[in-house]
Amino acid sequence: MKLCIAGKNNIAVDCLYFAFNLFDRRDICVVLNQTDVGKNNWQKSLSFHARKENISILNIDDVQKIENIIFLSLEFDKIIRPELFNTHKLFNIHFSLLAEYKGMFTSLLPILHGKKYSGVTLHRIDAGIDTGKILDQRSFIIDGFSCRELYNKYVEEGTRLVCDYIHKINYSNYKVNPQNK
Which residues, listed in sequence order, are joined to residue 72 by a DSSP beta bridge? Predict the structure, then answer.
């Protein structure tokens, strides 16, 4: 295995299909969120599409043992402990402009705080929660957005950002910067 997509929803599914352009399907696996019941609803199911495309579905313990795998957390529902992995290629897409709004409720907090901008961040996973070094960020205007509109924009921009970087990550052709405290 060379690539693991762990997570759910449109972002995980759309990045999976994009990865077919860069990796042999036999080299891709997925780890599902506990809530993925294998049916598409208002968002796509990673389980449904992985089964449809004959992509290996593994559990997190199995993926941790794979050497040098690229691990992409895309709305994944578990905290990743890097020390358990046999790779340092661990990445997460976060729905905010880190270092602001780590953790959850990122579709609400910028609106609640009257922010004019938000964005998405692709960062390395480290031992903290959303504290890893940043590969890239994309910002956009959110003035007048509802929480649902903001979430949809996060998914759209997050998908673009991950797809722009999968090839660079595969060839270690990227730079990271520490988060601005």
Answer: 5, 91
pTM of the model: 0.95
First to last CA, the chain: 36
Give SS3 for 95: coil
Please name the residue that has the structure tokens 């790779």.
87
The amino acid at residue 149 is: E
Cis amide bond preceding 99, omega within 30: yes
C-alpha 128: how far from chain center? 16
Distance CA 19, CA 38 (A): 20
Task: Give tens-digit pLDDT for 20-65.
Answer: 999 999 999 999 999 999 999 999 999 999 999 999 999 999 999 9
Which tokens is 105 given?
Answer: 């409720």
Cβ contacts of 28 within 8 Å, gap of 6 or more: 1, 2, 3, 4, 5, 16, 19, 20, 55, 56
110 by DSSP, 3-state: which? helix
Distances (CA, A) of 53 to 6, 15, 21, 107, 166: 16, 13, 14, 31, 19
3-state secondary structure 15-84: HHHHHCCCCCHHHEEEEECCCCCCCCCCCCCHHHHHHHCCCEECCHHHHHCCCCCEEEEECCCCCCCHHH
